[in-house]
Amino acid sequence: MLLANIPTSAKAQVNNTSQETFDYQLLRHGEMALTMTLDNQPALFVLALNEKTVLFQEEKSTPETVQNTTHTLSLGKSLYAEKQSFAVESAPATYREQDVKGLLGMDMFRNVVLTIDAKNQKLTISAPYRPDFMKLSNRIRLNEAPQQVLRLPVMVNQQNVSLPLRLDQSADLTLSQEQCQQLGVTTSRSLKIAHTEWETAIATTKEAAGSFLGNGILQHGLLSIDFTKASIYFQAYDENAIVYKSVSKSDIVVETGKPTDIGRTYFLDHVWDYTASTPYTYRDNVPCVIDFWANWCIPCKRLSPLIDELAKKYAGKIKFYKVNYDQEKKLADDLDIGALPTLLVIPTKGKPQTIVGPKHEELEQRILEYTGENTKE
User: Fold this and answer.
1) Which CATH class is domain 260-371?
2) Which of 4, 10, 31, 247 has the fewest CB within 10 Å, making it most exposed?
3) Catalytic residue among 36, 193, 217, 300
4) What dihedral angle (degrees, nearest 10) is formed by the CA atoms of 344, 348, 351, 357?
5) Domain range 136-236, its CATH number among 2.60.40.1250, 3.50.30.40, 3.30.310.50, 2.40.70.10
6) Is 288 an annotated catalytic residue?
């Protein structure tokens, strides 16, 4: 048994810990983004882990209006902030283009343990203890709970140093020229977090207070942050098996007259298993339209209301699905989906057809033509 060698107290912690795992997506510049629920609507937030969560100001609103408005922000059953006033900032242009609604700060995670798995692009939120796949031996206690800045104790060139973590920077390690001299390092040295050690290139900056760890460290191991107990965990990916609860077929409910969000697993099970050695076979008796979209794709957003309208109009005759391109790149690559928006139209008889960058006024007729619905009375 996997738990056989865990001390009794640790077993109890694992057994009494609830945990939820969420997929995150990488934005244009590598930022980690989660789909939260903001005032009962899906909203994309970047994981920043600054001191406080920030909402981006809508273009037509004033800072005073937003600042004095309360909002409810949640993620699954684990994170919930009800009717709170959040800090407000103007969105950088790149975030505005990708429809990012805000930045997630440390204040949202004060009562939970946050675990980042960059290898599988997943975030696990557990309470009151670490997730079951994180070993207790990889814990590092902090001097105090993170407040304004999340600082990680690490070893650089066999010397202890505490550095802030910046998730918006990609390098493993950036040091000021002054700190390089203090540590006696040049371009490449060992970096060690908990029991995981690797050789890394060192980026340098002239800013005296410019030393920090970047999100590159997450390629070397899992990072858990226990804000309540002022501890972090860092564990190499090959140190312990990670088993995430897979989404079962019953977890996705197809509602008649509405587009349904699906992923690769559902596609293989219910649409077309292109991994099989057998000839092409469509797995349904109703034609379908699959809309490949992304948060940063403005034409996709303009197309979305029309897809909703067509799904309602042809309820029971044509199924409509939506696939998030950024979250399902494997599926998109396998199907040679590149430009967005792209619609994959699959009839009950015949081969799938694609419609790239559809003209709205022609879309309905093309869907009916490709599905064969225009020949039916």
Assistant:
1) alpha beta
2) 4
3) 300
4) -20
5) 2.40.70.10
6) no
